[in-house]
Each structure stands twice: as structure tokens, then as C-alpha cells.
Input
Amino acid sequence: MGELSLETTKALLRRMLLIRRAEEQVIHFATDYKELLTGHYHVYIGQEATGVGVCHALQPGDYLFTTHRNHGHVIARGGESGPVLAEIIGRVGGYNRGRGGTFHVSAPHLGILHTSAIVAGCVPLAAGAALSAQQRGTSQISVAFFGEGAMDEGASYEALSIAALWTLPVLFVCETNGMAGGRREKGESGPRLVDRALALGITAEVVDGTRLAAVCDAAGRAVERLRAGSGPVFLQVQTGNTWPGHSGGRAVLQGGDFDLTWAYDAAAAPQELREWIETSDSVSILLRDLDRSGVLSRAAAIELDREVRAETQAAAKMALESPYPSPEGALQHVFGR
Amino acid sequence: MPEMSYAEALSQALVEIMEQEPRAVLIGGAFGPLGKRFANRIKQPPIAELGYCGIAVGAAMTGLRPIVSLGTASFIYEALPQVLNEASVARYGSAGQLSVPVVFHVRVGIRGAGAMQHSAAPQPIFWNTPGLQIAVPSSPADAKGLMLTAALRSQDPTIFIDHTRLHRLRGPVPDGPTEVPFGVAQVKREGKDVTVLATSVMVPRALEAAEQLAREDGIAAEVVDLRTLVPLDKAAVLASVAKTGRVLIADETQKSCGVGAELAALICEEAFFHLKAPVRRVAIPDVPIPYSKSEEDYVTPGSHHIMAGVREICR
Output
């Protein structure tokens, strides 16, 4: 794991597992209950290393903006599963009192101010927070997480271009997860997204998002550059093959919750997951790396996961026990006055 | 009290804002002599309305008070995703945790040879988007006072609407802190026979019409300037209608679902039994704005339309 200490590695793996288990819980909310999570939602399964690796490079006070696929980013930044899950089912115990829901989970106290469900909506906003930090003379930086679909929308290019012009301390993290909506013909590749950022004069690189160490390394270098005032950085994080459970806006857990032993023995996993576990799942890849290098044994990882599962169970219970907000509250908070 | 033009009053407001408020940042526009004095707080973006309006929104969420100058109001259509989908909903979606004190300053209206894409009156679009405040000053004093309030006091996004044909209008502007509160209409001329509700460029046109109606017809028209559409001074509207029993709404927006439509609906719901005659609207017909002078003049709501309307309902 390069420069990461054992303790740090364990902490990061724990965060990744917290995300995995919370997202599974989201799917349970949608599939095991009636009328609990009725809309569509977007889970982060498989991409955990990106959120956790990038957030590891941040300091308190930094800003984070994300999209409809935000649950993992909020937990990666230190958000607790309970208020995240409560928000996702519209309960008053959510970080936004249930008002934002799955599309708009945010946590202002963690610097996750506003989450946009428009694919490129967060990109100019993150650049704006970076302008604010620059104008106020602080060392804060701002991060935008978005998918490759955001690079179809003009807002991204306008924001990238201004960020470059004004040397804004903003990190653009484009997670190419193969899930952009709209027209995507099989085999269509087009120019690499990183080339578009480079063309706008932005420091950019392609990162292997299936490997936590690669994300930590790239994000660490990017953040160093941002704090030095050298202008924006664009990371095209390749998150590998899409998790096979994604099914439009309503994900399905093939074979139930992820069994950690599958990471070490993909043959034991449901057929449709095997290739993904071998090549793309950032959690499985990390678990195997840690096991092989002797940093964290299977047994120790499974024990860690047991803790995480218990924590997630408690979080789900908290979310389910939290009431709906009072209906007439819907009329509040349009304006501050 | 010094007299100055509407444009001069607005410039004076910007100077005072920059002097008093270190968090104020100007984005876009030609700020003339301000540019040198406050160079580090004036940002000149490329013509990327969507990008720089979104950047202003993000900056407003994180401790700045940006004033974005978009120039011609038609250009804000390029930025609507950030204005309508992000700025307006951030406070609501966070259940009150976030404030977005940003000002989007636009010049609306029929200006003379602006044609379809330089004459927009987008007030109804913004009024139908909860979370946006709309200031529509008609005088130099209000232009300055409402801009000061938007930039120095407000905690929410404001669409600040000025009108090209008001820039040269002269009037008294009080010295010193002259903030004009949002949501307080002003009776510009008292009258007992009919209420004329007006905003922005239609206020001087309504005053001209009222003067002529008094002289030629002996009709005493009360001219009420709403000053802000959001928040709306409902009480002032209803009080004047209760007093006169007749109302004409003069607004330079397209008629259908325009400013006049909402005010007429409000009056019908809440002041119907005070009415002695049907509500009248003077507005732009439901067409884009044409270029040719003859056609442009034809679709521009003027004082003659107000007079004709008032005469009809005061018969």
C-alpha cells in the first residue's frame, strides 16, 4: 500500500465497507419494503475507492460537491450512515431533514454544501467555492465528483475553462463508471475525457479507480498542487466495469449482500458478479491486495466487516425509526427572511 | 437631495457596496472606474453565462456576496440551469442550512431595435420559480436602494431587473445609507377613482397617463409601484383596490402568465367584492419583440394604452 500506514489502510477499508453496506441497505429499502423508497436512486457500489481515496487527501474545511450518485461521497467524507439513510428515505433524521432525499444528500457541516442531481450541475458550483476560497485568501480547496455524463453538458466546459483562466483551486473528479445516460452506443469511445481537460489548459491524468492506492496517490498529488495555488486539476478516474447490479435507476443485489469471501474466491460468487469481482470491484481488489501482502488477513477483514455490518444495521434502524417531517413544513425555508 | 440618473444611482450603489462589504465580488460587466479601485474583487469571465453564474452561486454558498452583471436580460437564458435549478433551491433543499446571497443584475425590456434576443422580459419565469427574489426598481432612488439591500442584506438570490429605457431617467437620490426594503410598495401618486399597478419602466408611463387623465378626464388615478415582485406587497395592492374599486395593471411583460396575470388573479381571489369594474391588463401581446420601429412601437405598452384602459373601466 505504498505510503499508507496499516492503521490508515484499515480506516480507509472500513470507510469503503461502510459505503458498500449502506448502499446495500438502500437497495433493501427499495426492494424489501413497500412504499419506502419508491423513486429511482443511484448507488456507488464498486466505486468506493474513488470517493474514499480522494477524501483521504482533503482537510477539514475543504468543499465537496457531488451528483445524484452522492451517497458514497458523503460517507467517504465522514458522513454517518444513519443520517444518510434517513435522508434517502425522506425522514427528519436525515442531514437535510428528508427534504433533499437520495438525489440531494448533502452535509453542510462537512463542507458538502449542495448536491445537484443535474449531471454537470455541481461542476460550476465547485469552481465557485474555489473562487470563494481564493478571494478570501484561505487554503481551502474544492472538489467536484461527477460521472462521464457530465462531460456531455456545456456547464462542465464553461466551468473548466473559467477555472483554468482564474487558476481556481478546484479538483474535478470525473468517475468514468460506464453509467452515463443518453446515447451510448456499445463500443463508442470518442476522445478520452482527460484530453478535453488538457485542451483547456488543465493539469489532468487518468487514474485507475479500481485501486485505492492509485487514487490516494493521484489525489494526494493533485491536492498538493491545488494548495500551492497552481490551478485546477482534472482526474479521469476509471472505475472499471460497471457493477452488474445496476439496473436503470433500481439496482438489484445478485446473490444478496456482498459476501467478503467472494473477494478471495470469485468462483464462489454468483456467475454474473465473477468477472467484476476479479477485474473491477475496488473493495475486492483491495481485500486481495491486503491479504496477499500480509497487511490484513481474510479473517481480520471479515471481522472488520462484521463491525461495519452491525453499524449499518444500527444506522438503518435509526433511519427507519426517524419520523417523516411534519407535512406543513413543506412551506418552510424557501427564503431566509 | 442630489439629483442623478438611474444609471448613475446604480453605479453609486456599486461603489458603496464595494466600500462597505469586503465579501462583495463583481462578476462580469463593464464597471468603468470601479475596475481600478477594486481590481482584486472584479472578475471578468469569458462569455460563459452558465459557467460564471454557477460559479457565482457556488461562491455565494461559501461566504462571498457576488453581484453578477449579465447585461441584456436575454443572456440569462443561457444560465438558467444554474439560476433555476441550483441557486433557487439550495436553501430549500438543505432545509434552511444554506444561504445563497447572489445578485443577478439584468437589463430587461423593449429598448429600441433590440429585436427578439435583446428585449427579453423574463420576470414571469423567475416569479414562477420559488426561491428567487425579484427587484424591479422604477426610479434612481429605488435602483440604488434596492441594489444596496440585495447586495448587503439579503440572504437569498435576487434577480435585479433594470430597464434600458430607465437609464437616463433623473430623480432625487438621498445621501448616505439609502437601502430600500424588499416587499414594500410605494404609492407614487394618490387617487380615488382607479388603481394603476406598475413596475419598472411602466411606472413613469403610468404617472404620465395619470397626469393626463386628471387633466383631460378628471379621473384621479392612484399609481402603485410594487418595487419588488418577490416579496410582493400584497397588503398595499389590496388596500389600494379596496379604496378605488377599479384596477389596471401595467406591465412590460408578455400578457399570458405575465406579471399582470398573477396580480389579476390575486385581486380576483382576495378583493373581488371591492371591484366595480373588470380588471384590465396592459401588457406586451403574446409575440416575440420585433425589430422594425413601426412594429416594435406597436407592441410596446405605453401611457396611451393605460389611458385607454382606464377610460374604459371608469366609464
